[in-house]
């Protein structure tokens, strides 16, 4: 098990990001859903928890075979997906990733949002229960982003919002910018397979960090697109984008299926037969 806490600051308020988060996730998922990969939304509905109250439950299938390193692609089916389950009780969320093909693999993410610059060292005290974790600050403007994800329009060193007048983000912006908020993410990665555990857990954390960096960059880079939306507006946008993304992903999956490659049903049947 490898445990890390990521802290990602943005020039937004927690209340604003409630809308921005939903907009960013929907648009980002649609953009990434190419060549039969990306995100298929299976379920998205209100959910009530005795402890956390009213929230939203979402289940998705994340197709990512071509994004795996070559040593991992060699041992997984051609059509490979991870199941994402998320419980959003904003400003607190829980996200879990599992894979029926790899039963010893899981990612667990707990997120809390606060209006500060990442200065709360005790935010996960009750969740950690004295466990050691590495704290990693992620700078949405100046941390290096993978080249395949770079877009000049999303480079926050040069971006200035027309509607909010926020930006350009200069060096040291977290100490001088108002408003400012922080996404605190406690990420646990488990891959309990002897000989591969350390390698896989470190690789997954690198992927998680890259995804967090890209998502939070885009949330601010797209601020002029969502800042005037209400919660109802963004839920309607979310619904439309989910429908478009599902059509896009499912069509590509059907085209990519061959008689010699296992289908999703084949994988599920195999899993049930082996339990």
Computed Rg = 19 Å
Parts with pLDDT < 50 across at least 5 consecutive residues: 258-275
Could you state the oligomeric state of the chains shown? single chain
SSE series: EHEEHEEEHEHEHHHH
Strand order of the largest sheet: 2-3-4-5-6-8-1-7
* Terminal-residue CA separation: 24 Å
> Which class best fits the helix and strand makeup?
alpha+beta
Number of strands: 8
**Overall pLDDT:** 86
Based on Cα principal axes, name the global outline.
globular
Descriptive account of the structure:
The protein has 275 residues and is an alpha+beta fold. Helix content is 35%, strand content 27%. An 8-stranded mixed beta sheet has the order 2-3-4-5-6-8-1-7. Helix 1 packs across helix 5 (197-221) and helix 1 packs parallel to helix 7. The longest helix has 26 residues, at 231-256. It is globular and about 50 Å long. Mean pLDDT is 86; it is low at 258-275.
List keywords for this structure.
single chain, 275 residues, alpha+beta, eight-stranded mixed sheet, 35% helix, globular, disordered C terminus
What's the quick description here?
The protein has 275 residues and is an alpha+beta fold.
Layout of secondary structure:
Layout: E1 2-10, H1 14-32, E2 38-49, E3 53-63, H2 70-73, E4 81-89, E5 92-98, E6 105-114, H3 125-128, E7 134-138, H4 173-176, E8 181-191, H5 197-221, H6 223-226, H7 231-256, H8 264-274
Parallel strand pairs: 1-7
Antiparallel strand pairs: 1-8, 2-3, 3-4, 4-5, 5-6, 6-8
